[in-house]
């Protein structure tokens, strides 16, 4: 049986008897790998003595005015370099071509990242060197206390901030103060410069499309021109401007890539054919159709969704997003849904070959409404 007696007084932390040991003697049999007579001693007090605070040693800049000035100039130099690098960031943004390459890397990205990164780095280096060499150097002991913040503590916090201002020398070192303000203020310039990446200024672009007098109305996506007599009553055809399929003198497309997508997003149209007697044209637009063929924007004036759900019997066009419904026989007027204005209509004509063409751009802005729409 194993001895269940308590350890001897004064040796409470001793290990209990293990199997194979001789109870009460501290001796162990040789088969457990421990030395005979070994016991665990009990210690009182802290395991490590409190080292306290070492004796304060002044820094070289605290005792040598020349070193103090040298440290101040070094901090100011780093802040000044930060401001210059920020200006270099702005210059690089405008001066370096977007397609320039250095070591298989975009030269613009390399310049922008390097100048802005070094500008921030020099501000950090300057702040650290300022704190380590020029700000007051003394040890502070802060005792733990409750998390409450009575008025006395708030007053003490304000006093601490004022003390920090005094000890840092921010007010009496104008060289450091001015260069720091310059470097931090210059960091606002990249924010202004980078606004250019949001895109070009809109100008009148939101109110215009590529449609113009003489531009053919062609099928999307085949690009085939359309004759009015080829359409049947009640039909709807998705169309786009014929200029999207034209090329320049060198055989290059007039529109391609992102420019094509942006232009097509506003110029997409639908062509419908109704019996002429079913059409109630808007005043002043009696001649905007050709033999019952009308053309309207495919972009919903509510939030810009593409619309081509066509009800032949009611002659209504329905937006699939929010169910705005437009009566195309009544000039595209709104009969239901959240849209607040009619779907824009494009005036049609025919060219010498009998194909449908536009007689100008849309009279109303295409796409979702925007704040400046009715301010002109």
Task: Walk me through the structure.
The strands form four sheets. This protein has a seven-stranded antiparallel β-sheet with strand order 13-8-7-6-5-15-14. It is built from seven helices and 15 strands. Helix 2 packs antiparallel against helix 3 and helix 2 (65-95) runs parallel beside helix 5. Among the domains are: 62-138 and 154-198; 205-247 and 265-359, Rieske [2Fe-2S] iron-sulphur domain (Rieske Iron-sulfur Protein, 3-layer Sandwich), CATH 2.102.10.10. With 376 residues, it is of the alpha+beta class. Residues 1-15 and 20-30 have low confidence and may be disordered. The chain starts with 20 loop residues before the first strand and ends in a 17-residue tail after the last strand. The chain is elongated and about 105 Å long. The chain has helices at residues 60-63, 65-95, 107-133, 151-168, 174-186, 188-193, 257-267; strands spanning 21-22, 27-28, 101-102, 105-106, 213-219, 236-241, 269-273, 293-297, 309-311, 316-318, 325-327, 333-336, 345-346, 348-350, 356-359.
CATH homologous superfamily heading of the domain at 205-247 and 265-359: Rieske [2Fe-2S] iron-sulphur domain
Radius of gyration: 41 Å
Average per-residue pLDDT, rounded, comes to: 82
Query: Strand-and-helix sequence, N→C?
Result: EEHHEEHHHHEEHEEEEEEEEE
Helix content: 25-40%
Shape: elongated
Q: CA-to-CA gap between the ends?
A: 104 Å
| Tally of contiguous helical segments | 7
Structural class: alpha+beta
- Poorly predicted runs are 1-15, 20-30
Question: Tell me, what is the CATH class of the domain at 205-247 and 265-359?
Answer: Mainly Beta
Task: Kindly report the CATH topology of the domain at 205-247 and 265-359.
Answer: Rieske Iron-sulfur Protein
Report the sheet with the most strands, covering strand number, pairing sense and barrel closure: 7 strands, antiparallel
